Amino acid sequence: MRCFAYADESGNSGLRLFADQQDTFWTGTLISFSDLDSKYATFHRELLAVSGKDELHGNELGFGRIEKIAGRLAWFIREKKLRFSFVRIFKPYLATSKMFDLAFDAGVNPAVPPQTYGVRFLRQINLLHFAQLLGTDDLNEFWSLFEAQSSERFGKLLADVRDRVKGAPYDQRSIQILTESLDWASRHPAEVLDGFGERDSPNFVAFTGIFEHLHAFHKETGHTIGSFVHDEQDQFISKFIETFDLLSKFQGDESGPLSIASDITPISTFDCNLDIRSSIDSFGLQIIDVCMWLAKRVIEQNNIPRGNCATLWKGLIERSYIKEFDFDTLAREVEASANLLEKRPLSAEQVADAKRTLTAIEDARKKRLSLNP
Question: Sign of the C-alpha dihedral, residues 206, 211, 214, 219?
Answer without folding.
Answer: negative
